[in-house]
Amino acid sequence: MATSTYLTNPTVNLAPTTGGAKVDLTDQCRSATVTLGVDSLESTAFGDTGHRFVPGLMTVSVELEMFLSYGAGEVEATLFANLGTGTTELTISPSGVTESASNPEFTITNMQLVDYTPITGAVGELSMITASFIGGTYVRDITAP
Questions:
Q1: Most CB atoms closer than 10 Å: which of 18, 57, 88, 95?
Q2: Could you tell me if 34 and 94 are in contact, meaning their C-beta atoms sit under 8 angstroms apart?
C-alpha cells in the first residue's frame, strides 16, 4: 500500500544544441512522461530450460505536452532548434527543483527530438503540442544541489 503521495509539479529544462543556458519550459508544460528501460539481449545457452536475458543498452523516451507559444526562447523556437539534432539534453524532476529521494532529477543527454507539431489550433481552445524525444542515456540524481 502506498505510504505517501505528492502533488505533481514537474520541472522541465531543455538545453539548446548550440550550447548556452537551458531553457525552462516548466511554465509551458502540461504533462511530462519519462519512460526508462534497457534492451533485453538473449543469452540462452545449450542446457538452459528457459530463455535467459541480460541487459543491453539503455532505452529512454520522453513525451512532453505543452502550451504552444512562439518567439525567441519560447516553446516552438526551442523545439525547432532541437529537431533531429540528436544532442538534446533534458532535465526533468517530478516535483520542484530540489533533488531528494522523494524527488529524483533525471538528466537525459544525447536525446533526439523526433517530432512535434509547430502549428495546431481549434476555435476557442489553447493550442497544445506534444513533443516526442527518444534515445540517449540518463542519470538519476537524488542529492540536493
A1: 88
A2: no
Listed in order, strand segments (DSSP E) in the chain are 11-15, 23-24, 29-42, 53-67, 88-93, 105-115, 128-134, 137-141
Give the span between the Cα atoms of 38 and 57, in whole angstroms.
Answer: 5
One-letter amino acid of 24: D
* Residue 43 in grid coordinates: 543469452
Amino acid identity for residue 48 in this structure: D
CA dihedral 108, 117, 35, 73 (to 10 degrees): 30
Do 12 and 33 form a contact (C-beta atoms < 8 A)?
A: no
**Mapping DSSP to helix (H, G, I), strand (E, B) and coil, where does residue 49 land?**
coil
Low-confidence spans in the chain with pLDDT less than 50: none
Please give the pLDDT value at position 100.
83
**CB neighbour list of residue 78: distance below 8 Å, 6 or more residues apart:** 14, 16, 23, 25
Interatomic CA distance for residues 101 and 5, integer angstroms: 13
- Domains along the chain with CATH numbers: 11-42+51-141 (2.30.110)
pLDDT at 4: 65
